[in-house]
Design brief:
The protein is an alpha/beta fold and about 200 residues long. It has a single domain, classed as P-loop containing nucleotide triphosphate hydrolases (Rossmann fold, 3-Layer(aba) Sandwich). Helices cover about 55% and strands about 15% of the residues. It has eight helices and five strands. It has a five-stranded parallel beta sheet, sandwiched between helices. α1 crosses α8, α3 runs parallel beside α5 and α4 packs across α7. The longest helix has 25 residues. It is globular, with a radius of gyration of 16 Å. About 40% of the residues are buried. The protein binds adenosine-5'-triphosphate and magnesium ion (MG).
Amino acid sequence: MFIAFEGGEGAGKSTQIELLKNYLTERGHDVELTREPGGTPVAEAMRDYVLNPANTIDALEECFIIATGRASHVAHRIRPALAAGKTVITDRFVYSSYVYQGIAGGLGLEKAKRINEPAIDGCEPDLIILLDIEASTGVARARQAKDGGDRLDQASMAFHEQVNAGYRTIVDDRWAVIDANRDVAAVFDDIVHVMTDRGLCA
Ligand SMILES: Nc1ncnc2c1ncn2[C@@H]1O[C@H](COP(=O)(O)OP(=O)(O)OP(=O)(O)O)[C@@H](O)[C@H]1O
Ligand SMILES: [Mg+2]
C-alpha cells in the first residue's frame, strides 16, 4: 500500500504521518516513511539545494531538479519497498510539484505533469490525503516550529494561498480531503475513518 500526504506548510503532515505510522505498525503493517523532495541520497542532496534560501532558481528549474530526485525516489526507494510488501507513506509526492511549481509557481499544471510523468512512471498512490488548511494558520504553525524557515517557507502569503487553492483543484476520487484546521486528534480520527472506509486498514 502506498499513501501520500499533501498540504501546505504547517498543515500537520509530519505530525499525522507519525501517528499513522504507529497506528498501522500496531496493526501489523511494515511501514516505511519517506519524504519529498528527498528519500534517497541524491534526492536529499537536491532537496538541500532547492530549499536553501541562498539559491535563486525559477519554477522550471525547481520542477526539473525535484523531478530528477523523484525519479530516484520512485525507482530506488518506493518501488523496492512496495515490492517487499511494505506500506509506504510519503510526506509529499508529485502533487506538490503540480501545485508548488505548476499552479502557484506559474509553470502551469500541464507542464509540471509532463515533466514528472517519466519520473513517477505510473507509480501512483492508493490514497492521497490532503490536509486542507487555511494558509495563515499553517504558516503560523510552521513559523512557531522552525526559526527562519527554508526557501519555500519564505514565500509570500499569497503564494501559500495559491498552494492551498491549487490543491483543491487537483483532487479526484483517490484523494481524501481532510479539514486540518482542527486539533491533532480530530484530524487523525478522520484519517483513520477514511482508511477504514476504503478498506486500507482493519
Ligand atoms: N492540528 C494541529 N493543531 C495545532 N498545531 C499543530 C497541529 N498539527 C501540527 N501542529 C504543530 O504545527 C507545527 C507544524 O506541524 P507539522 O510539522 O506536522 O506540519 P507539516 O505539514 O509537516 O509542515 P511542513 O510543510 O513545514 O513540513 C508543529 O509544531 C506541530 O506540532
Ligand atoms: Mg513536515
